[in-house]
């Protein structure tokens, strides 16, 4: 643990991280136990089920590599047996709703533009966009030439957008219903079917299976997935392994704060019914310092940016807030007035770059 | 004033019978309606680096290319004139249309004098009150410090004089003139290779969408692209256009709105607007600031009458009044008509009512209007001390005398208020009069339409930049949420003004006059009102990346 703390404090993000050494040990132990505790969750909705396969993946990953980083990794029992057929059936019903305009995933649809703004902004900052062919066209296909993996793609909301911007995107999901829905929907746009430089493929596979096939990606995204995963530590490790050297890792999740409980569970689920009740479990939310430590130590990536995002009820839009270095990724909404720590007290993004030489 | 609820009755034809027709051609954006809003949208999209990559179609039932040959004579002005706010002018500049215009046919309106026909209480808006203010308190409340109005202020300097200090309140020009600029730009965009197809003199025969009806190839295993949920527009030339996004810029009775099953709510005012091109004698105006463009508006119980400045001693009349009076005024001889227009700005409401009652069934004057008016004016002048009550200079000023009315420019149209229940539907969006119609007393209808177009263009650009399907309702929602409330606020404000001034009830007149005089004397509040009316008070960030 002492070694880990020392390494974390040498990151580029110095100021806000004084608590990191303490919390990093806390999150490892919490996740280790959480894996068992949360298997019995009954109210798990689509997005969570999408993550079960990654949990399975990480379960195997942990068993094969616990010794290597000296951290006690969770031994998660066998989560496969607990993913029962009822859950799959419930999920099949939900999969039709992914693209319904006023359906349960409306908030995710609204989140897509700021997600893309954030991803574009971070890939430009890290140099990935200029390494791609994107700079040679009229600006419509900035991600042209990049191979991107979207883990936990659901109905393909983010996946399609990335492909329209020119990337070769692989969408990965544990639910066959999700993948089928995503495949059907991708057929609805000529731009995704040879009408533009980007391409799109969906796989009903686990991240570990991709790893076994020797696949590597320029960019790995996993949006609002890790807070639903059974074993986040192992999950991060696999994501890191799927990245090429210097590849970009982009995650988003929710902080484990009372405020996050209030907005994402009390308001969004129970009060406003904007998302289905049971979508989120507060105990699985992950604080920025914890995620940062995990990305650093397990995914072997250097964290470059953490930035909050919030829903502005006045504009009806999600808006990016100030990141730790004071930038806003070009956003000008009301919420850009807010910076850390308030900005990171609920939903936030994290961008990291794989360390090329370990 | 009746309150009605309008529901679409037009039922679009179905494609079932024409199954043998050729496969429709695919577009990204199809705009139905080539009026100013529709043409401006085509122009804005075509001139945008991002949106200019899209395949666009513009459909208009009447001619469009004929506008390019518009050759106006300096002594003739068409009767449909718009007052363009600084915000609208900034937008027209941005899309390259303003530079196409003949600025000698654009009149700056530097001052606006509005008064109550019953009480003579008045308010004067002077452009110099607003200029120099970079942004206002209200603006900061709504937008925060990041999105200032600096960009707007820089863009809206006087296009004629290039003089930043004297930004007029508005610019007056003929709608035909704006169309001329738009069509010239559209042709230029086509010439430089923008994928823009213009179907003029072409009617839309039906709009269909096979929602829920899957053709072969919709299954997950099949490889065919499935765009069955894209609307198909059938034209009377046999062509069928299938589009990712269908834009209704097709006016108050929008067929696109009917297709999308969007309700239009509102009512008809029991008023007609009478427009005409007037010739005035500028030397007869007693207003200070000679050479300044002044708009005159007087609220009468039958509706407001407004005279808007044009160049070369011409002016444009918009007289909102009862259907009968509008009908009668149209038939009057030019001489009698001018006499009554002059009376509408000077005579008391009772006198005016008497005069209008004396128009014969064939438009003949039953009394000598000229003599009646002169006699009554002389009587009124004897009660001179009245003017001491409100002694500031322009409050007593008289508009210039109307000396002639241009032939064939008198026209009337019904006044109504409409707002669509929604501006967006999956793959459908409404702009301009298709989305909302407003009483013309504030001259805001066209400006609202252009603001719609500017916003929609930005939303489409942002949709493309974020990899969205621009026809998806989630991509379009920001347009709706940005435009619906401002349009509704404008509709409501103008409607309340119209109602407030349609009465002669003494307490109401007293209260409204007190309010008007008070506002006239409260600089900051007046400035806020002017900024709102000029489109400078835009509580939405327009410079988002």
Automatic annotation (TrEMBL), chain A:
Residues engaged in binding Mg(2+): 224, 227-228
Pfam families: Methyltransf_23
CC terms in the record's Gene Ontology section: extrinsic component of mitochondrial inner membrane
Pathway it works in: Cofactor biosynthesis; ubiquinone biosynthesis
Annotated residues for binding of S-adenosyl-L-methionine: 115, 152, 173, 223
GO molecular function terms attached to this record: 3-demethylubiquinol 3-O-methyltransferase activity; metal ion binding; polyprenyldihydroxybenzoate methyltransferase activity
InterPro entries in the record: SAM-dependent_MTases_sf (IPR029063), UbiG_MeTrfase (IPR010233)
SUPFAM superfamilies reported in the protein's UniProt record: S-adenosyl-L-methionine-dependent methyltransferases (SSF53335)
The protein's Enzyme Commission number: 2.1.1.64, 2.1.1.-, 2.1.1.114
Single Gene Ontology BP annotation: methylation
Superkingdom, natural source: Eukaryota
Membrane topology: Peripheral membrane protein
Biased composition (Polar residues): 63-76
UniProt enzyme class: transferase
Alphabetical keyword list: Magnesium, Membrane, Metal-binding, Methyltransferase, Mitochondrion, Mitochondrion inner membrane, S-adenosyl-L-methionine, Transferase, Ubiquinone biosynthesis
Biological function: O-methyltransferase required for two non-consecutive steps during ubiquinone biosynthesis. Catalyzes the 2 O-methylation of 3,4-dihydroxy-5-(all-trans-polyprenyl)benzoic acid into 4-hydroxy-3-methoxy-5-(all-trans-polyprenyl)benzoic acid. Also catalyzes the last step of ubiquinone biosynthesis by mediating methylation of 3-demethylubiquinone into ubiquinone. Also able to mediate the methylation of 3-demethylubiquinol into ubiquinol.
Subunit and interaction comment: Component of a multi-subunit COQ enzyme complex, composed of at least COQ3, COQ4, COQ5, COQ6, COQ7 and COQ9.
Family named by the database record: Belongs to the class I-like SAM-binding methyltransferase superfamily. UbiG/COQ3 family.
Name the UniProt record assigns to this protein: Ubiquinone biosynthesis O-methyltransferase, mitochondrial
Protein's organism: Mortierella polycephala
GN (gene name): COQ3
UniProtKB/TrEMBL annotation, chain B:
Main location: mitochondrion
EC number: 1.14.15.45, 1.14.15.46
Compartments, as annotated in UniProt: Mitochondrion inner membrane
One of the Pfam families matching this protein, by short name: FAD_binding_3
Catalyzed reactions per annotation: a 2-methoxy-6-(all-trans-polyprenyl)phenol + 2 reduced [2Fe-2S]-[ferredoxin] + O2 + 2 H(+) = a 2-methoxy-6-(all-trans-polyprenyl)benzene-1,4-diol + 2 oxidized [2Fe-2S]-[ferredoxin] + H2O; a 4-hydroxy-3-(all-trans-polyprenyl)benzoate + 2 reduced [2Fe-2S]-[ferredoxin] + O2 + 2 H(+) = a 3,4-dihydroxy-5-(all-trans-polyprenyl)benzoate + 2 oxidized [2Fe-2S]-[ferredoxin] + H2O
Pathway: Cofactor biosynthesis; ubiquinone biosynthesis
UniProt topology in membrane: Peripheral membrane protein
PROSITE patterns named in the record: UBIH (PS01304)
InterPro entries xref list: FAD-bd, FAD/NAD-bd_sf, Ubi_Hdrlase_CS, UbiH/COQ6, UbiH/COQ6_monooxygenase, UbQ_mOase_COQ6
Keywords linked to the UniProt accession: FAD, Flavoprotein, Membrane, Mitochondrion, Mitochondrion inner membrane, Monooxygenase, Oxidoreductase, Ubiquinone, Ubiquinone biosynthesis
GO cellular component entries: extrinsic component of mitochondrial inner membrane
Coiled coil start-end: none
Top class in the EC scheme: oxidoreductase
Keyword Cell wall biogenesis/degradation among record annotations: no
Superkingdom of the organism of origin: Eukaryota
Named cofactor requirement(s): FAD
Function statement: FAD-dependent monooxygenase required for two non-consecutive steps during ubiquinone biosynthesis. Required for the C5-ring hydroxylation during ubiquinone biosynthesis by catalyzing the hydroxylation of 4-hydroxy-3-(all-trans-polyprenyl)benzoic acid to 3,4-dihydroxy-5-(all-trans-polyprenyl)benzoic acid. Also acts downstream of coq4, for the C1-hydroxylation during ubiquinone biosynthesis by catalyzing the hydroxylation of 2-methoxy-6-(all-trans-polyprenyl)phenol to 2-methoxy-6-(all-trans-polyprenyl)benzene-1,4-diol.
Family to which the UniProt record says this protein belongs: Belongs to the UbiH/COQ6 family.
Subunit annotation: Component of a multi-subunit COQ enzyme complex, composed of at least COQ3, COQ4, COQ5, COQ6, COQ7 and COQ9.
Protein name: Ubiquinone biosynthesis monooxygenase COQ6, mitochondrial
Organism: Mortierella polycephala
């Amino acid at each position: 643990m002492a070694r880990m703390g020392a390494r974390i404090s040498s990151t580029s993000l110095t100021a806000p991280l004084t608590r990191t050494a303490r919390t990093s040990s806390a999150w490892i132990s919490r996740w280790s136990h959480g894996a068992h505790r949360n298997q019995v969750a009954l109210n798990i909705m689509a997005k969570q089920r999408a993550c079960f396969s990654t949990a399975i993946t990480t379960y195997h990953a942990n068993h094969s590599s616990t010794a290597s980083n000296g951290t006690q990794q969770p031994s998660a029992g066998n989560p496969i047996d607990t993913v029962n057929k009822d859950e799959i059936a419930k999920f099949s019903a939900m999969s039709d709703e992914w693209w319904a305009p006023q359906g349960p995933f409306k908030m995710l649809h609204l989140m897509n533009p700021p997600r893309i703004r954030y991803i574009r902004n971070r890939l430009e900052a890290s140099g990935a966009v200029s390494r791609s062919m994107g700079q040679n066209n009229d600006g419509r296909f900035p991600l042209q030439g990049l191979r991107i993996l979207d883990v936990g793609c659901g109905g393909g909301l983010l996946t399609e957008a990335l492909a329209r911007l020119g990337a070769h995107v692989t969408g990965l999901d544990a639910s066959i219903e999700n993948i089928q829905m995503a495949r059907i929907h991708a057929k609805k746009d000529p731009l995704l079917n040879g009408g533009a430089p980007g391409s799109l493929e969906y796989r009903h596979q686990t991240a570990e299976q991709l790893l076994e096939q020797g696949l590597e990606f320029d960019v790995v995204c996993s949006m609002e997935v890790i807070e639903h995963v059974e074993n986040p530590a192992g999950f991060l490790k696999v994501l890191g392994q799927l990245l090429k050297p210097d590849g970009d890792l982009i995650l988003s999740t929710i902080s484990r704060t009372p405020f996050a409980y209030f907005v994402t569970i009390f308001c969004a689920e129970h009060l406003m019914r904007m998302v289905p009740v049971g979508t989120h479990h507060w105990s699985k939310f992950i604080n920025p310092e914890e995620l940062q430590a995990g990305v650093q130590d397990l995914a072997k990536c250097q964290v470059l940016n953490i930035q909050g995002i919030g829903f502005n009820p006045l504009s009806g839009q999600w808006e990016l807030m100030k990141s730790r270095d004071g930038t806003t990724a070009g956003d000008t909404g009301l919420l850009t007035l807010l910076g850390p720590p308030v900005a990171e007290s609920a939903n936030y993004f994290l961008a990291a770059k794989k360390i090329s030489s370990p | 004033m009746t309150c009605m609820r309008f529901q679409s009755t037009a039922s679009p034809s179905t494609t079932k019978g024409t199954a043998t027709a050729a496969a429709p051609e695919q577009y990204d954006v199809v705009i139905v309606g080539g009026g100013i809003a529709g043409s401006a949208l085509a122009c804005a999209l075509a001139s945008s680096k991002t949106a200019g990559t899209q395949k666009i179609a513009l459909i208009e039932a009447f001619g469009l290319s004929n506008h390019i040959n518009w050759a106006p004579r300096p002594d003739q002005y068409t009767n449909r004139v718009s007052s363009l706010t600084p915000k609208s002018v900034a937008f027209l500049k941005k899309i390259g249309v303003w530079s196409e215009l003949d600025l000698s046919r654009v009149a700056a309106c530097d001052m606006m004098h509005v008064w109550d026909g019953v009480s003579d209480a008045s308010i004067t808006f002077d452009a110099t009150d607003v200029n120099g203010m970079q942004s206002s308190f209200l603006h900061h409340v709504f937008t925060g410090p990041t999105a200032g109005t600096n960009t707007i202020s820089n863009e809206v300097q006087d296009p004629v004089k290039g003089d930043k200090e004297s930004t007029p309140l508005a610019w007056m020009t003929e709608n035909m003139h704006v169309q001329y600029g738009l069509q010239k730009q559209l042709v230029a965009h086509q010439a430089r290779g923008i994928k823009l197809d213009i179907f003029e003199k072409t009617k839309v025969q039906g709009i269909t969408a096979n929602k829920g009806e899957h053709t072969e190839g919709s299954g997950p295993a099949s490889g065919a692209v499935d765009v069955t949920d894209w609307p198909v527009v059938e034209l009377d030339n046999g062509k069928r256009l299938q589009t990712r996004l269908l834009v209704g810029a097709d006016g108050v009775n929008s067929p696109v709105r009917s297709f999308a099953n969007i309700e239009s709510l509102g009512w008809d005012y029991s008023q007609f607007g009478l427009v005409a091109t007037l010739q005035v004698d500028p030397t007869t105006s007693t207003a200070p600031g000679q050479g300044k463009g002044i708009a005159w508006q007087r609220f009468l119980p039958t509706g407001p009458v407004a005279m808007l400045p044009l160049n070369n001693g011409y002016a444009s009349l918009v007289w909102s009044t009862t259907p009968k009076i509008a009908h009668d005024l149209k038939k009057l001889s030019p001489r009698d008509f001018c006499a009554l227009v002059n009376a509408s700005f000077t005579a008391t409401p009772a006198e005016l009512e008497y005069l209008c009652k004396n128009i014969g069934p064939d438009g003949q004057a039953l009394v000598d209007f000229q003599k009646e008016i002169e006699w009554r004016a002389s009587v009124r002048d004897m009660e001179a001390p009245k003017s001491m009550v409100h002694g500031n200079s322009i409050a007593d000023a008289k508009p210039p005398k109307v000396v002639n009315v241009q032939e064939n420019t008198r026209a009337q149209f019904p006044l109504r208020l409409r707002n669509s229940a929604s501006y967006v539907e999956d793959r459908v969006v409404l702009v301009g009069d298709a989305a909302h119609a407003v009483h013309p007393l504030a001259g805001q209808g066209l400006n609202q339409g252009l603001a719609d177009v500017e916003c929609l263009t930005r939303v489409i650009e942002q949709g493309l930049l974020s990899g969205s399907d621009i026809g998806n309702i989630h991509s379009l929602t920001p347009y709706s949420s940005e435009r619906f409330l401002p349009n509704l606020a404008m509709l409501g404000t103008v409607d309340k003004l119209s109602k407030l001034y349609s009465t002669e009830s003494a307490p109401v007149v007293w209260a409204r006059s007190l309010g008007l005089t008070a506002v006239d004397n409260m600089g900051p509040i007046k400035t806020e009102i002017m900024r709102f009316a000029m489109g400078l008070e835009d509580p939405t960030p327009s410079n988002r990346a």
